[in-house]
């Protein structure tokens, strides 16, 4: 590798943290300048100190170095200290992934350290400084869809932060489900009594806020564009208006589960079997009376999990039902001390401060009965199975039965007719429903037809019309998960959806109480503001916050296969009339999935490319077959697998020193060409190490591991043509918490390589 004439690669070797005691610094310096032709190489006892940082900074300022390669600790640490303006800083990991997890002063450890330096210099030589794309007219206005408690809170908080807000509500009133409730669950100490409903005061504050435009009886009929530059059509009474929007918060709330489906619990058989939501309205309207005769009920049973945690109805816990029933029972016994209230539960869930609320109800005489309700008769007899007695027990003499029905998210406008989705978009909508499912494509390797996702019949399209009516290739809906919630990455990025700049908050995202919903609304509003600010500067939003790079398309070599547009998890790539890809820059998360999908290497980033990965792999010294030192390339996801390897080093978990690790943005960015090229260079095996997929998927870019598996399933033919065993290439899923296991996973693979034998391409 030789550097370009205008570039000056300066290598900075750190001997601190035990590096200098474990490997030969002079040997690495010689490799940097003599073999890899770096302009300079300097050593320092602690580059992260003020003196070390000054050394690098002064060289950059003087022009001695234009591309610094810092061979020290992991790229995941000291990021603030090694942030130098105007240059692309490369980090070579000598500490966590070399000397801390391998034997000191060992030949193989030295070879590993040498290769880390080689790969770092190669990376510097094959990357450039990205320039931001900032074209377009950016808007600061935030659109909040839904004016219940969450939407009102999001609008109010965004306004307080200085943003202009348009608050859209499809009904003619603000406040949503909670507006009429007289009392709510306690959200402040001592957490023992129902509190006054905050919604009326919040409505007043929003209506009086000059930064907030309130639009009731309004639907979002079209959403196009991208973050900072959304073009939204709002329709009210048949009249449409266009709005230029920066970010969007979807706070469409929830609706109660349809109790008509709960006939076995007596709903519909007696007017005195009511739902918890119906009881809320009855309590708000004045003294509680029975629907059947107008008399005040004296004995009331609350049936918990009425349809919730039931595969035949709602498979999930709705989170608030237990506390809501406690609130109702307290309201009833405080209004009439003669009331006897029973709460029949299978599992009572009152976490945190809600435990005080539960104890308060006990002290007020509310009776909690553990059992599974089998049915409710027309005479209001509740039959439940007592686990302690092992028998069915009838509870008779009741005046009212309250069914604690669960939350169903308003991910669509269910009161609007279901809009037919074009067949080519329908498959994407189905795929969004289940992130655990692999992203299957047809015709991936052979043929000229563009691949499309394979539909899976178990994924049912959502009912009702779209909330936002997105003008995206992937269809009009926000991605909706299997249980109907409009969420995305459930661990690392709450609020976000798979549509950049669009955030969900409140029960449309997951079941939650009002306290959680308030925090959710604040978080989503702040995320929307953050998205507007970063895209205006041409930067990426989470998880690669601040990244200025973006995919560039070499249209002169593009085959119009459409793989990039099909596989982009975020709908960032559209097509021109000539079928060439066109990027919506501010939608892009910079994951590189498009790059990995492209069969002809026509997509790259200024600081990340298929060629960069290939050149880094090629820079490694591959011993010949007589040395009997295998080399295995690990392409490790920077979000989970690479941190797990770092943590293994921090905890001194040792593993084979024959592996060479290259961090990748996502396994979805890995091309089949990276694999075939590495094998042709003599690598004995390749591990694609990515995030967890499945029901508890942890991929920051949704389906990176699933995409990698799908692609690698097609490589067997390529390996066969090379006369290589398919076992030489494997995909592994590693959680960020798997540092104690990752070493064994690597060693087990190395044992398989020992059995298979060395790559016959060595030396060619």
Features:
764 residues; alpha/beta; FAD/NAD(P)-binding domain; 4 domains; five-stranded parallel beta sheet; 20 helices; disordered N terminus
What topology does this entry show?
Elements: E1 9-14, H1 19-22, H2 25-35, E2 40-44, H3 50-62, E3 67-72, E4 90-93, H4 95-99, H5 107-125, E5 142-145, H6 149-160, E6 165-168, E7 183-184, E8 195-196, H7 199-207, E9 212-215, E10 218-224, E11 230-236, E12 239-245, E13 247-250, E14 254-256, E15 273-275, H8 276-284, E16 299-306, H9 321-335, E17 340-345, H10 354-363, E18 367-370, E19 372-376, E20 382-386, E21 391-395, E22 400-405, E23 407-409, E24 412-413, H11 423-433, E25 465-466, E26 502-504, H12 514-536, E27 552-553, H13 563-567, E28 573-575, E29 581-583, H14 593-597, E30 603-604, H15 610-619, E31 632-637, H16 641-650, E32 659-664, H17 672-680, E33 685-690, H18 704-712, H19 716-721, E34 729-733, H20 739-756
Parallel strand pairs: 1-2, 1-3, 3-4, 5-6, 5-13, 6-9, 13-26, 15-22, 16-17, 16-22, 17-18, 31-32, 31-33, 33-34
Antiparallel strand pairs: 7-8, 10-11, 11-12, 14-23, 19-20, 20-21, 24-25, 27-30, 28-29
Helix pairs in contact: 2-5, 5-15, 6-7, 6-12, 8-9, 9-10, 15-17, 16-20
